[in-house]
Amino acid sequence: MTSEVQTKAGRSDATARPKIHLDPVGFWSYARDNEDLSEGRLADILRQIKAELASRFGRLEIFQDTSSMRHGDAWETRIRESITRSTFFIPILTPHFLRSKWCMQEVEWFLEREQQLFDAYPDLPRTSRIFPILYVDIEGATSIRPDLVAKLNARNWFDMSEMRYAERVDVGEVGRAIGDYAKSIRTLLMIEVETPLSAEEREALLREAEAAAKAEREEQDARKRALEEAERIRALAEEEAREQARIAAKAAALAAEVQQHDDHVAALAALSARLDAGLAHSCAQAELREKLAAADAEAKHQRDLARSARGERNKRRLRRILVATGWVIGVAVTLLALPVVYFSVFPPAPRDGGNEQTSVTGNLAGNMTVDIRSAPPSPAKPRFAAEEWITEQPWAVGAKCGSSVSFSIEGNDLIVDQGDAPERHAIDAAQSTDDRLVADGLTLSRTPARSAADSRMTMIYPDFKVEVLPCATRR
């Protein structure tokens, strides 16, 4: 899932995720009574729909309980599992269908499955994946689940109520109508969607979203506190301005009183009291200036924290882009290097028509070699197709082709002679082919050579396997 991570909340800054098609798996839902009464027409309709869809997808699966259920399967469990795998649903609407408990249950299960597809693939269009076929008119028919019937009424129907008596469904107007119906299903299945997120990706995205939300909340709280502090400071400044205005008014009144009173001493005492009050206010003003400076410092600190958080997010984003780019480059380099490494380790062997020798792995003695020499064509057709390359080629056992082993055919038996008591194996003519002889407990086969170095014959016993290699490799 090399991909762009996507959730309902949105899309990350990574590259786009690869596109896929949903599997063409359908579910055919119908009432058994209707199948019996249709005299095989419903089965013909299903085959025609499958043929129309298979011509586009090549592979197609439509579950039908009468043909897809094996003997002994748990009926309800198997149907539920099949609906869970389906990507489209074809209900055959009849009065019997509406009164069937299990047909209504299948509709409810697929509605849940449809919602699961929408949740798993956020970019999948919210188009109905139910394609009802109206086979018998249901007007006025009662249902055990009216709520589900109302949901089916909201979907587009394919009306076959007037065409169900046709002799054939693959020709004429009926065939064209079924073709158009299958085309609507095919159009839906050809929609490409992004591959779903893995559990690890969803968890990582959730953690990242929670961290981002937490940082955003902290930033908003800091801004709110800064605004509240600034508002409080402005209120203090306004109060100070009002106090200064009062002091100025009192000072002006005092000056007028001094000019009017002859008692300069009393005027001076009153003035001294006013001056003391002004001094106290000046101290308060100095304290206010200190608080303003502290508030400015706190606001600057909060701005620095916000800038740092944004920088960390940008760094994480850049790291993710670099890692994704590194993976893409690494995979491309690996794919380009694989052929070079393969041909350097396994160079093509030169074509050589000389003798061949084999090495053996298994529980035979030492090594087995075979010297394949040309033999004149058999004048008569052999009893078994493999008789020519088994009986007309000498075989040998030993590191240097010293000891012989022979194969022969007597009647319906294959005789294997390794120098001790010969072994007799009954030949299975039904399983034997031109390049493989199957006997009781023994399979002797030949693989066509791609090159002289790759020419080989294989002898398989029940408990070991012998691969035959060119004789020259053992010299």
Molecular structure report:
With 475 residues, the chain is of the alpha+beta class. Helices cover 50% and strands 15% of the residues. It contains eleven helices and 18 strands. It has helices spanning 32-37, 41-57, 65-68, 75-85, 95-99, 101-120, 146-153, 172-189, 199-260, 264-345, 387-391; strands at 6-7, 10-11, 19-21, 25-29, 61-63, 88-93, 133-134, 158-159, 192-194, 368-370, 395-397, 403-410, 413-417, 423-426, 436-439, 442-447, 456-461, 464-467. The strands form five sheets. A five-stranded parallel beta sheet has the order 5-4-6-7-8, with helices on both faces. A hairpin with a 5-residue loop joins strand 11 and strand 12 (403-410). Helix 4 packs parallel to helix 6 (101-120) and helix 9 (199-260) packs antiparallel against helix 10 (264-345). The two termini are 51 Å apart. The relative contact order is 0.07.
Main attributes?
disordered C terminus, alpha+beta, 15% strand, 18 strands, 11 helices, five-stranded antiparallel beta sheet, 475 residues
Q: How would you briefly describe this protein structure?
A:
The protein is of the alpha+beta class.
Give me the number of helical elements.
11
Helix content: 40-55%
List the helices and strands in order. Answer: EEEEHHEHHEHHEHEHEHHEHEEEEEEEE
Catalogue the unreliable spans.
Answer: 1-14, 352-375, 448-457, 461-475
**Structural class from helices and strands?**
alpha+beta
Supply Rg: 45 Å
Oligomeric state, counting identical vs distinct chains: single chain
Report the average pLDDT across residues: 77
Number of strands: 18
Describe the strand arrangement of the main beta sheet, using strand numbers: 5-4-6-7-8
Overall 3D shape = elongated
Largest pleated sheet: 5 strands, parallel
What distance separates the N and C termini? Answer: 51 Å
